[in-house]
Write a structure and sequence with these properties.
The protein is of the alpha/beta class. The protein has helices at residues 21-29, 40-48, 66-79, 98-111; strands spanning 2-3, 10-14, 34-36, 58-62, 87-91, 117-118. The strands form 2 sheets. The protein has a 4-stranded parallel beta sheet, with helices on both faces. The chain has a two-stranded antiparallel ribbon with strand order 1-6.
Length: 119
């Protein structure tokens, strides 16, 4: 069964890949449809490509300069279509901190509610 999304996608900026395997693993095991991007431009492409049937719930990418990339991404989103507002979350890697993953999970739950299934 496929789910119908009633939400905008989320772009998740993660810190450097080193030490972030817990977050990557958690995302892969989560209920969300995910897609990994290599840079902010590819992330925007994944959430705004209207030629695909469904956008992923979460597009995540690892960046070296999380604050600078978040600012650039938000500026690019503001310049895009006015009715298109994906959420952007920055998650700095905090190795071995389960409370960080719990906080991330709560943020995603608010932004991506469980959708009813459609046949």
């Amino acid at each position: 069964m496929a789910t119908t999304a009633f939400h905008q996608p989320v772009i998740l900026l993660l810190g450097e890949r080193r030490g972030s395997h817990e977050v990557d693993k958690w995302l892969k095991e989560s209920r969300y449809s995910i897609c990994e991007a290599t840079n902010v431009f590819q992330a925007l492409e994944h959430v705004s490509d209207f030629t695909v049937g469904e956008a992923p719930d979460v597009v995540f990418l690892h960046v070296d300069r999380i604050e600078a990339d978040m600012e650039m991404l938000e500026n690019m989103l503001m310049a895009s279509a006015p009715d298109f507002h994906p959420s952007v979350i920055a998650y700095a890697n905090r190795p071995a901190e389960d409370s960080g993953l719990v906080g991330l999970a709560l943020q995603l739950e608010k932004l991506i509610p469980v959708c009813p299934q459609v046949n």
